[in-house]
Amino acid sequence: MEVGSNRLQQAAQGALAISPLSIAVVPWGILAGSFAVDVGLNPLEGQAMSAILFAGAAQLVAMGMIKTGASLFSMLVAIFFVTSRHFLYGLAMRDRISPLNVRWRVVLGFLLTDELFAVCANQDKARFDSWYALGAGLSFYLIWNAATFAGIVAGTNIPSLNEYGLEFAIASTFIAIVIPTLKNVPMLCAALVALILSVMMSYFGIESGLVIASLGGMLTGYLLETRRVQP
Questions:
Q1: Cα dist. 165→31, 98, 102, 171, 175 in Å?
Q2: Are 31 and 166 in contact (CB under 8 A)?
Q3: Are 62 and 75 in contact (CB under 8 A)?
Q4: 124 three-class SS
Q5: What is the pLDDT of residues 72-88, one digit of tens each?
């Protein structure tokens, strides 16, 4: 009984730790739900996007491409690049996740988001608790899907909901995630280079600008970190 109580306590602590990010992402989820209606998906398809894909940025990219009539191959390539950062998240947390059984690895892998990584990445192997991560990831998943459902309902009743500025939640969420991680000069320079490149790519209307900006930021951080650790 005590073990079960401790597990629930750890899960509750994880849910509490991620709650500020869960609240911040609600407008983003509403936007995703309303956008699904706007591009012509039915309510079930729109909800399935959040329940199965469960990746806000990828969902918005996919729905935007659906609206423009892009091919399935183009959407798969775009989504792959948008979500490729999760490979890095997985590698960064490998020492904590790999000792778990397959069921735990699959569940936590599915629930791994930018927000869950932000909450759990600072825990070393000794401090990491799978139930804490499960509570954080599952609570975020439920809130994201609830917000999507609210957006679908609102999108069918409120015209042009995507014009109410809900997209601010996307920027604010990533700012809240990124800023606490900028702990040294290479990280700060990587973020600044990615920011400057993304603005430039957007201004000049260059396709795949997000991918270029991401690669530029990562390369800058890698080069500066390499120079920093050299004797």
A1: 9, 41, 41, 11, 17
A2: yes
A3: yes
A4: coil
A5: 887 888 788 778 888 88
What whole-number distance in Å separates Cα of residue 38 and Cα of residue 40?
5
Distances (CA, A) of 201 to 84, 187, 192, 213, 216: 19, 21, 14, 8, 12
The per-residue pLDDT for 82 is 78
212 in Cβ contact with 206 (< 8 Å): yes
Cα 185 from Cα 229, distance rounded (Å): 12
pLDDT at 226 over 70: yes
DSSP 8-class letter at 15? H
4 class by beta-carbon count within 10 Å (0-12 exposed, 13-18 middle, 19+ buried): exposed
Scanning the structure block, which residue is given the tokens 């390499």?
226
Instruction: Considering only CA atoms, give the Rg of the chain.
Output: 19
13: closest CA among 173, 111, 112, 120? 120
CA 186-191-197 angle, 5° bins: 120
**Residue environment code for 32-51, b if the CB has 16+ CB neighbours within 10 A, otherwise e:** bbbbbbbeebeeeebbebbe
Whole-angstrom distance, CA of residue 216 vs CA of residue 190 = 8
Global pTM reads 0.77
- CA distances 14 to 27, 54, 141, 144, 168, Å, are 22, 19, 13, 16, 26
Please report, for residues 115, 124, 131, 148, 171, the alpha-carbon distance to residue 32 in angstroms, rounded to integers and kept in the order given. Answer: 17, 34, 29, 6, 14
